Amino acid sequence: MKYVILILSFIFILSGCERNNQQPQNQTHQTESEEESDNRNLHTITIDGVPLKVEIAQDAETRTHGLMYREDMARDEGMLFVFSEQRILSFWMRNTFIPLDIAFINNKGIIVDIQRMEPLDESKQYISTAPALYALEVNAGWFEDYGIQVGDVVAF
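RESULT FIELD:
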């Protein structure tokens, strides 16, 4: 009888452990890119009332790395590069796989230049046509899709 109780207790313990390790059937699992997205610190800015979620690159390391090695980016997301002083800015597309547009923005929040950037093209530099304090990279076509152009104002 002792053996029967011992065996039943053991089976009960094992079955309890097994149930605790099972995932509920309606629980969804995040993909690696969704988890990565959740780990990013996104801020919302607006351009003439159009909201855009942006990652902020405000130190040398994050500005240098930028959007390198990313294979995609959500449609209404971008990266805002913040510099310590307004000046002519220069960007390139080293190890950047996503076609991008870049807007150069002055210290008053006014877009002073917009350019299309081709992925993986290290032969070209994208240089602002006027001094800028910020650069905003978005998916190619985003500015055009929302009618955003030079002279529009960015609210941070």
